[in-house]
Write a structure and sequence with these properties.
globular; 39% helix; Aspartate Aminotransferase, domain 1; single chain; 382 residues; 13 helices; 2 domains; 4-stranded mixed β-sheet; Aspartate Aminotransferase, domain 2; alpha/beta
Length: 382
């Protein structure tokens, strides 16, 4: 029986055309027409004025923090309930991550805990060391950006949005990634669209995106020889990968529709068998891309071991599911960092949350297996 994956690449059909064109024209390089075209595609879709196509979303966060001046000993206030790529670039620059708990509704950065953190640093006289606020639009569901931006503007601290998982998600029809100083997208193999590996940095600030592109190409100066006035990185996207991205952009809206349909199908399955399952809420005006169908199994309803028992049961059927992100403040590498826990929602959601297969390329026969597996587990537990 073939494995049903959590989220696998889904080609649209024209990616090969763009890649073949690069081969025909011999644009086998870190730059080229596909890179330029892909950046324009991202700008057109997101509404951002400028975009830089890069080797990863991690690289995009690194460049954003570097450009905004994060240095040794500076603080970056970042969501704890996230993947490590949101946090590692802070360490690259010698900064200090400060972890913020999640709110219960969206599972994203809690505005109340953020205020608590800022009040703490203000009281200590260290507010000037807080250089960036870094919220994450987890699993494709937008953060409470109206509150986050209100707080950020009040304290005059720039915001970098980690929208790696939320391409296509909107708040009042404005795309995630376009609220702060910078937005970050990821095109890793499991994302809603992919370039095999890659990312993008977006902004409405032309000079900062120009600087990002320069830093991403080893910070080479405008000279006939190789000259460098600052330290740069090898972060530019290849013309081949960008070709894949151009084809993927043509089907992005469909991929969002398909992922949302997956989420609704799970809701219907749970309703049919009587499971009262929780999930990330879409507030008024919010449109999630539902990149992954993620659910919370309240231990007071389902019991302490239910989530893990379900995961193992599906695994025996060769159906991949996965626990939610382990909060960064619980990770051995970051357990020494400050954490503003609020209600400790991040820990609770991690303990009892599960991602179910969410690919836009799930076939009907695979859905039959998934539904049968969930039903069999329900019968076993009843």
């Amino acid at each position: 029986m073939s494995k049903i994956w959590l989220s696998s690449p889904h080609m649209g059909g024209t990616e090969q055309d763009f890649v073949n064109h690069a081969f025909v024209k011999n644009w086998i390089a870190p730059l080229g027409p596909n890179v330029n075209g892909f950046e324009e595609d991202i700008q057109r879709f997101s509404g951002a004025k400028y975009a830089a196509a890069l080797s990863s979303g991690t690289a995009a966060i690194h460049l954003a923090l570097d450009i905004l001046g994060v240095q040794q000993g500076d603080y970056v206030l970042v969501q704890s309930f996230t993947f490590c790529a949101s946090v590692n670039p802070i360490e690259y620059l010698g900064g200090r991550p400060v972890f913020i708990d999640s709110e219960n509704e969206t599972w994203n950065m809690c505005p109340r805990a953020l205020r608590e953190a800022l009040a703490h640093f203000e009281q200590k006289g260290e507010l000037a060391k807080v250089k960036v606020i870094l919220p994450v639009h987890l699993y494709g569901t937008p953060t409470n950006m109206s509150e986050i931006m209100l707080i950020a503007n009040e304290y005059n601290i720039p915001v970098v949005e980690d929208a790696a998982e939320s391409l296509g998600a909107t708040i009042n029809k404005k795309h995630t990634g376009t609220f702060g100083s910078f937005g970050v997208y990821s095109f890793n193999g499991n994302k809603i669209i992919t370039t095999s590996g890659g990312g993008a940095l977006i902004s409405d600030n032309e000079e900062q995106i120009k600087l990002a592109r320069k830093l991403a190409t080893q910070a080479r100066d405008d000279a006939p020889h190789y000259q460098h006035s600052m330290v740069g990185y090898n972060y530019r996207m290849s013309n081949i990968c960008a070709g894949i991205g151009r084809g993927q952009m043509e089907v992005l809206s469909n991929r969002v529709d398909q992922r949302r349909a997956n989420f609704e199908r799970y809701q219907n399955i749970f309703k049919k068998i009587g499971w009262e399952v929780s999930y990330q809420i879409e507030r008024a005006g919010v449109y999630s891309n539902r990149w992954l169908s993620a659910f919370y199994f309240d231990p007071e309803i389902f019991g302490e071991k239910f989530r893990e028992d379900l995961r193992l049961f599906l695994d025996e059927l060769n159906i991949e599911s996965r626990p939610l992100w382990k909060p960064m403040h619980l990770q051995p590498v970051y357990e020494h960092c400050i954490y503003f826990g609020g209600d400790n929602n991040a820990e609770r959601i991690f303990d009892y949350g599960l991602c179910l297969p969410s690919g836009s390329n799930l076939r009907e026969d695979e859905w039959v297996r998934i539904e049968a597996g969930i039903l069999a587990f329900s019968n076993k537990m009843s």
